[in-house]
Design brief:
345 residues; alpha+beta; two-stranded antiparallel sheet; 13% strand
Amino acid sequence: MIKKRIFIILLHLTFWLLSYIYITSGNLNWNGFGKEEGLLKKAYLYGMFFNALLFYIQVFWLVPKYYVKNKKAMFWGFSIVLFFLITYVETYLDVALAVKYHVYNFEPIAAGIIWFYHNSIFHFIYFIVGFYYRFQQEYIKSERAKQELLIENHNAELKYLKAQLNPHFLFNGINSIYHLIGKNNANAKSTLLKFSNLLRYQLYESNTNKIELYKEINYIEEYISIERIRKGEDIVLNLNIDIEKEHNLIMPLLLIPFIENAFKHISNHNEAKNNIISISIVERNNLLKLIVNNSKDSFHHQAKSGGIGLKNVRKRLNLLYKDKYDLNIKSTEDTHEVELIIHLN
């Protein structure tokens, strides 16, 4: 930041220096001031000072203090007063220099009117350039602040959605272990260990926007193994996982709500062969495809407290995969199917 400021200062100094050298080294004549007796050098030295003064007054005072803060009346008031005051002072010095060196033979007042007009043209140019220069800086600063705010809001919303998702998973996991206690304590212990691994993943590994795909798949397999133990022989589970590039990155905890939902709302027919869950996760050419299908009871209705995970995952998909995913959910009287396709890159 300091280096950038030093560079800008040197750039400005170079501009004014080169401007002075260019104007005074030629055969230019300004209001009668030429090379004779170094009049042009003297006139342009203070002329350049007043041009720079108008420019930097705009840059460092008038625009940031009044125009940007919507104090337009004060901005224009000070600008007009300073514009005419500085133009008058430079014109006065021009007249004084002309009188001293006898540049003109006619009245100083008449010459002053002409010089005032000429000086005001150049002052107006530097006035506008100074305004535009600072206004552009303020615009860039404003846009940068907007972008930073969007990123902060984006990250805050992701954290909030994750915070909602974790208690939702915690509720489902505890509920699964609860159903095992008393029925099969060995499985309950095994499930509790697996559940602790899942929590460790959520607490220590998923606190980022993206994670390697194989870690997310391991998490899903761990969860499914818990549900296998809990459901036992009451369901038929078809699982297909085929990953080409396991180090591809994916948003953590993105797929699990759809899988959780399938186990939560699986049908409860007397015959296990009618209670079916099919899960397919395939990744090819950076395209991830998840298909989850579960049988359901025709009379089943989702509880009022349910659906938190699915609502959150839709929001998360829109935040990080906007225009890069396709989600289709189909539900009939007997089946529920989710198809999610994500472009990982």
